[in-house]
Amino acid sequence: MEKPDQVLVLEHQLIKLYNESDYRLDSSDNLRSYAEAYLSDDGVCSSLIGVEVMQEDVITASCLIGATGGGTGVHPDAALISYGGLVVCCAATVFKLSLPNLDLAWRTAADSATCFGIYYLDDDYIVHGEFSITRLDRDGKIVWQREGRDIWTTYDGRHAFEVHHEYILATDWGYHTYKYSFDGELLEEYKIEHQAAEKAIPDKKWWEFWKS
Questions:
Q1: What torsion do the CA atoms of 149, 119, 115, 193 make, to the nearest 10 degrees?
Q2: Coil, strand or helix: which one is 82?
Q3: Which of 114, 171, 188, 193 has CB atoms 3.0–4.6 Å from 130's, for a disulfide?
Q4: pLDDT of amino acid 41
């Protein structure tokens, strides 16, 4: 049996996440089947993620989530067990699923392209997106969004996004760094020096390249 791409632990249950980029909605030959599917309204998805809840080696709930936008996979910054549920980044959308039943609580398009990661911010969430830094409340409502001069990542993926105790640092492709308060106020802006790598970008999984 194929191993999951990520496993999260909740008391006596395991939550398994699978990158289902090869999953075909109209096929019966997929490696796994899911009890529910929460997909884009038109059914066209650039990314698909499978979720299973297991207890004592028995699958008690399962679902497939899918959304449009830049292609994403399963990686450590893409999901959190939080406030009685599971929040997951999939393409440009953040999904909130109840636990242990995996009912859809909400879904929010948090970026116009790709959601790289989701993190705690006080009692809310902060989403590191390709074009937007977005604060979501616990109900998935957008509190604020901020854009930079370019996409929110760097050539080497380092220091692109950091959440500190009292502020957020986000760096765009041109190495302009923005310091935001948790309320979205721009506290400081500066450009950092960098040295582009002379050789080609290493062959990595996409989340390893983008990870801050």
A1: 30
A2: strand
A3: 114
A4: 74
- Residue 95 CA: distances (Å) to CA of 16, 99, 101, 141, 193: 15, 13, 14, 12, 36
**b/e per residue 100-118 (b: at least 16 CB within 10 A):** bebeebebbbbbebbbbbb
In this structure, are residues 161 and 128 in contact, taking their beta carbons and an 8 Å threshold?
yes
- β partners of residue 51: 17, 63
C-alpha R_g of the chain: 18
Which pLDDT score, from 0 to 100, does residue 1 have? 57
Neighbours of 148 (CB within 10 A): 19
CB 36 within 8 A of CB 50: no
pLDDT in the model for residue 164 = 95
**Tokens in use for 203?**
């062959």
Burial class of residue 86 (count of CB atoms within 10 Å of its CB; 0-12, 13-18, 19+): buried
pTM, rounded to two decimals: 0.87
Q: How far apart are CA 99 and CA 83, in angstroms?
A: 9
pLDDT digits (tens, 9 = 90+) for 174-192: 999 999 999 999 999 999 8
Which run of H or E residues covers position 85? strand 85-90
Q: Six-digit token pair at 12?
A: 């006596």
Phi-psi region of 122 (alpha: psi -120 to 50; beta: other; left: phi over 0): left
Which strands form 133-136's sheet, in the order they lie side by side? Answer: 115-121, 124-129, 133-136, 142-146
